[in-house]
Amino acid sequence: MIFNIMDLTPEVNAIVFGWLDDTYEFNSLTFTSGSRFHNGKPEAIIGDTLARNLNKKVGDPLVMQGSTFTIAGIYHGGTALEAGAVILPLDQMQQLSSMQGKVSGVHVRLRPVPSGESQEHYFKRAQAAIEAVVPGLNAQLATDRATNNQFVDLAHAVAWGTSAIALIVGILGIANTMAMSVFERTREIGILRAIGWKSWRVMVLIETEATALGFAGGILGIGAGWAGLRVLSYLPKTNIFVSTSLTPVHLLQSMAISVICGILAGAYPAWRGAHLSPVEALRHD
Question: How far apart are CA 2 and CA 36, in angstroms?
Fold first, then answer.
């Protein structure tokens, strides 16, 4: 296979793959219209997201770097990258990229692990056999390649960094809100303490309010985040990198983080409110 990033229009670029027409890679694609291309012909298949953005259908021409290809099929891919990609016959992609006789990589699908052999040993044996075919060839498991991908690592680092900043800002915002609430309700807290409320009950009261703020913020954040993803999915420059799917696990993780942030943010205001002197609190104006 070959892959590269190419400009399709002045505003739209996409990942372009070169495959053989009988590769097993097609098993991961579902054609919504048309069919796969044929080796040796100037044909292409494109993802449904890209087809929608370019307003293309089967039979339309697709011009790349001065060469015209006929769209043979439109498919739905398993990932956002596939949904926004173009796939050409390998020989056509080699000519387009000036890589005649060369490829970017070779994907190999292994047979099932033989009985009596561990999976780890089988993978190592297969890697050694593949690397022995061509001197200097490096064989990697798909999982290892994805894990060690520098682009993915950079994206994860940026995402975690941005999320950490957002969490800190959110915690400080809730903490400030709760601190002001405790200050404005000093007399109320003093009355509660005077009629017999224990310190822990005051802390529970304030922490409950902080948790409710975190929960409400989580609901609003999920809604705003999903809306943002929808907008990015329609922009030509970002749609191939964005997926609008939200799994229940992601939703639960988001809500858990929001609630925990609320609890952490309310800790100091709750402690301060619980340790107010009833006499001093009743004198507060």
Answer: 17
Is residue 68 within 8 A of residue 93, CB to CB? The reply is: no
Q: What is the pLDDT of residues 41-87, one digit of tens each?
A: 999 999 988 888 888 999 999 999 889 999 999 998 767 677 889 99
State how far the Cα of 59 lies from the Cα of 171, in Å rounded to an integer. Answer: 54
Taking Cα atoms as reference points, which of 180, 176, 171, 161 lies closest to residue 260? 171
Task: Decide: 209 and 181 in contact? Cβ < 8 Å.
Answer: yes
CB 182 within 8 A of CB 266: no
Nearest to 213 by CA among 246, 191, 245, 180: 180
Q: What is the pTM of this model?
A: 0.58
What ranges in the chain are assigned the alpha helix state H?
A: 48-54, 80-83, 90-96, 119-131, 142-147, 150-184, 186-194, 199-234, 248-265, 267-274, 278-283
- What span, in angstroms and rounded, lies between the C-alpha atoms of 39 and 89? 5
As to burial, measured by CB atoms within 10 angstroms (0-12 exposed, 13-18 middle, 19+ buried), residue 240 is buried
| Residue type, position 43, single letter | E
